[in-house]
Amino acid sequence: xxxxxxxxxxxxxxxxxxxxxxxxxxxxxxxxxxxxxxxxxxxxxxxxxxxxxxxxxxxxxxxxxxxxxxxxxxxxxxxxxxxxxxxxxxxxxxxxxxxxxxxxxxxxxxxxxxxxxxxxxxxxxxxxxxxxxxxxxxxxxxxxxxxxxxxxxxxxxxxxxxxxxxxxxxxxxxxxxxxxxxxxxxxxxxxxxxxxxxxxxxxxxxxxxxxxxxxxxxxxxxxxxxxxxxxxxxxxxxxxxxxxxxxxxxxxxxxxxxxxxxxxxxxxxxxxxxxxxxxxxxxxxxxxxx
Length: 290
Prior knowledge:
Layout: H1 4-7, E1 13-15, H2 23-30, E2 40-42, E3 63-67, E4 69-70, H3 81-85, E5 89-90, H4 93-105, E6 110-114, H5 127-134, E7 142-146, H6 155-163, E8 170-172, H7 180-185, H8 192-205, E9 210-217, H9 224-237, E10 241-246, H10 264-286
Parallel strand pairs: 1-2, 3-6, 6-7, 8-9, 9-10
Antiparallel strand pairs: 4-5
Helix pairs in contact: 6-8, 9-10
């Protein structure tokens, strides 16, 4: 917030994620004035106004990202999002459809629905209802969604994915760890057996569906046994791809209160082992005959 002005004198203004609609007016205020004459910060907004999603600007001629929800109420122990973006807020169903229809009118035919936890969406309809109505938009050719939380994922969602012709058969389902002890410390709200059951049902219902994930290694107190359980889970599931991270503390989170006791060299070793494993799996899936 305002402290950035003390650390970096070249900063004219600071705007939080929910205040970006104020940028044009701020630029008008500081234009033509000395660097030290005006310092502005706008970081107290709680919700973006709906008109921010209807600017008519699109970075891609054929594809557009559509935010369906903001913030998060899960409070995973390592994640700062609920603190900086606030609690989960779902946009109105009709506003989302309007944004997509406006984009289709401009020739955009592919969409990705975005949210920190998209399948927790619930406004006038739930997430499955939203998928079904988006799939009926005239002129839309394909769409997908990111990112799903396992504890909000269901067999009903898989059936909707299988049944919606325009919905891409791709599921990004972050597991984060294969250790039940670490998952509990992460406050993820599920265990490895629950996750494995989801995967089994997804692959049974969504034939040929792509499955990707996120993994964190080196979480506080992660032992070699915990790590081996994560390694074994990835080896057994065989994701199409995975984003693999080394744990680092985020100020203000619950995990920040835990000792960051897995040394850097060990985090790097575990990261490389998982990365090499996943590279081999991804290559084998893409080129099964090699």
